[in-house]
Amino acid sequence: MPKKKSEGTEKIEPVETIPDERALVFGQLKEQYTMPWEQAARLIRSETMLTEVGVRMAIQVAKSFGLPLQGINLIPSKNGPQVYVNGDGIRWRLHTDPRGLRKSDADVIHRPTKDEPWVESKATIEMGDGSIFVNWGVVYCIPGPDVPNATMKSISKGKRRAGVDSVGVALPIFEDYIEWRGEQGKTIEGEFHIAEKPVDNPTNLAELASWASNKGKTMENVITDSGAEDIAFVMTNFEAVLAKLKEAWK
Predict the structure, then answer these.
(1) Is residue 10 in some structural domain?
(2) Which residues span the domain enclosing 61?
(3) Long-range residue pairs from 231-236, CB within 8 A, at least 24 positions apart, any chain
(4) Which residues contact 220 (CB under 8 A, 6 or more apart)?
(5) What is the rounded distance in angstroms from the CA atom of residue 173 to the CA atom of residue 227?
(6) Phi-psi region of 189 (alpha: psi -120 to 50; beta: other; left: phi over 0)
């Protein structure tokens, strides 16, 4: 016999059969982080064949920032693989952020002229909690048929950079590297070479990962051997962590 409704607002019981979407999303990430490294290597984007050390480094970085492995690119360099976040990784973080993505817009604030040959866009990302992040994308282009393509590139660049700011992924952006590489146009033995700081003195997370890899260490070793809580702690206490690691890994 159905229960009599009480006067006033009707109580609506939650539908327990519908799973939490975020729980499913992060459950999928956990599967990626724990799969055999050979299987994970198929998801990570790289121009060369990956080693176990490189894959495990990428997994640790992806896990620290809540990224799918497809959102990571590993770029070969003379000092070991460099870790980059790509546009897919940034979009993933934006759309799974617990604050919710309220708005992602861009305005073209400069169009190319003969004297000022570039397109500049201003990108704005607003999260559900009201926080706003602004960044710019500039692409050099002379007036002519290439302007529409350059305009789209400048908008995408601004949005990627604003996206990185909004979700706190302090990694270099893969698409920016590709643009830089195209400007350099240099190859060494079939592989592109990026300017490196001395391997004994890393100054950012990507260089730290390569420095550790050259010593036969992983990002997990970086955390445990330095006493850091996680990758975020490493980044905010970079110099102190590096000093501890240099002492521990003599």
Answers:
(1) no
(2) 21-86+176-248
(3) 231/60, 231/61, 231/64, 231/65, 231/205, 232/64, 232/168, 234/205, 234/208, 235/170, 235/205
(4) 56, 60
(5) 28
(6) left
pLDDT single digits (tens) 149-158: 999 989 998 9
Q: The whole model's pTM is what? A: 0.60
Beta bridge mates, 118: 140
The enclosing H or E element of 134 equals strand 132-140
b/e code 59-96 from CB counts within 10 Å (16+ = b): bbbbbbbbbbbbbbbbbbbebbbbbbbbbbbbbbbbeb
Q: What is the mean pLDDT of the chain?
A: 77
Regarding whether 138 and 191 lie in a shared domain, the answer is no
Distance of CA 218 to the CA centre of its chain: 19
Question: Quick one: which of 74, 239, 91 has its CA closest to 172?
Answer: 74
Summarize pLDDT for 29-85 with one digit per residue, the tens. 888 898 898 899 889 988 778 888 888 888 888 888 888 999 999 887 776 778 888
Q: Over 90: is that where the pLDDT of 27 sits?
A: no
The reply to whether 165 and 185 lie within a common domain is: no
191 and 218: one domain?
yes
Q: Do 224 and 108 lie in a common domain?
A: no
Query: What sign results for the dihedral spanned by CA atoms 159, 168, 20, 36?
Result: positive
188 and 131 share a domain? Answer: no
Which two three-digit tokens encode residue 1? 């016999």
Residue 69 lies in a domain: yes
Which of 120, 155, 170 terminates a domain? The answer is 170
- The tally of domains found in the chain comes to 2
| 31 shares its domain with 61 | yes
